[in-house]
Amino acid sequence: MPKLRFSFPWFDRKAFPVLAGVVVGLYLLEEVLTLREQHHSKVRRSLTNTAVAATGFTVVRAALLPAMVYAGDWSERHRFGLVHWLGLPAWARTTAAFLLLDYTNYCWHVLTHRVPLLYRMHRVHHSDLDMDVTTGFRFHLGEQVFSIFFRGGMIALIGAPSRLVLGYEAVFEGCTAFHHSNLRLPAALERGLARILITPRAHGIHHSIVEQEFNSNFGVVLPFWDWLHGTRCLDIRQEEITIGLPAWRDPEELTVPRLHRMPFDELRPWALPDGTVPRRLPAANGE
Question: pTM surpassing 0.85?
Fold first, then answer.
């Protein structure tokens, strides 16, 4: 059996500095071009989000990337996976594999909202009371671990080669930072980008305390899957959005130790602490 050559260090050497630059740039730009008003200390939230992300980042680098590379190399060696079975030419295999990688990540995101075990972990991400580029790192370790098995399995089933997988991962991480940012884009640029990418306005709606909005805009890179499945939502004014989860409004409940324990806490009703269910009045729609 040929020795498997993990190429993920290349990802860190080449892609990581670029991604770090993107994050720093967005962090500074969103202070100048601000999309939504911030209600809590950005410095404190950034420190909290970074601390929560630290363990997940270790898992991604130590386990997820190697698992993805292994799955891609294995499927390529064995000619296993959908893009191989269809007998497509090389360019079509690459295009189809990229699209399917993005679609399976859409599906994974939907599962983290609808499967109770996954939602227990995913709510750590949504519990942030404001939203900026650091929110894109706020994922619980448990969610990262489960994603290893799902994403590795999907890569093998698709038949995506490891080089494409790593290329897609760089795009995935860059887009995650971008659409979680609190960056206000010019209206014309926003409208144009929204046709081909998930934008900060679209993903801000996804972080709303209104349940219907929370269950919309699941896409990571491309918006087509939300259109296809009827989960696209764009007609919400940004100033009308309250970020976070309705049942978790107290910052003192959202410390780093509590966030690590959150998956083991009870599932609270979708309501504010006073029992009110957040709703969107029709008159508030339209932007």
Answer: yes
